[in-house]
Amino acid sequence: MKLTAFSWSHQATKNTVEHRVSELLESLTKEDRFLMYYAGYGFAEVGNTILSCSDSVLKKIGDTGVPMSWIADRAA
Q1: Do 1 and 32 touch, CB atoms closer than 8 A?
Q2: What residues have CB less than 8 Å from 57, skipping those under 6 apart?
Q3: Which pLDDT tens digit goes with each residue over 60-69?
Q4: What is the largest CA-CA distance in the chain?
Q5: CA-based, 20 to 30 A from 31: which of 4, 8, 59, 75?
């Protein structure tokens, strides 16, 4: 089992979050488990939750945030 932790703070742009999550998920094996703890703002759209990033724009949250479905699809 692998334990990986990282913090983004002010560097949590959409690009950084997507890149770091993609890197982490690509490094996992079938024996690994993925657990993500997000302490920040999220917004609900119909059928999806969007994680807010440091460069997110509220009126364009669907385009500027990271959808949980995007993470779930890559983790599957």
Answers
A1: yes
A2: 63, 64
A3: 999 999 999 9
A4: 40
A5: 8
pLDDT per residue as tens digits for the range 16-43:
999 989 998 998 888 888 888 888 889 9
Residue 62 φ then ψ, to 5°: -65, -30
In the chain, the DSSP E strands lie at 42-45, 48-51, 66-67
Instruction: Kindly tell me if the per-residue pLDDT of 1 is higher than 70.
Output: no
Q: How many residues are recorded in the chain?
A: 76
- What is the rounded distance in angstroms from the CA atom of residue 4 to the CA atom of residue 25? 11
Band of pLDDT at residue 48, cut at 50, 70 and 90: confident
Decide: 6 and 48 in contact? Cβ < 8 Å: no
Query: Which residue, 74, 55, 72, 73, is CA-closest to 64?
Result: 55
The reported pTM is 0.82
| Paired strand residues for 49 | 44
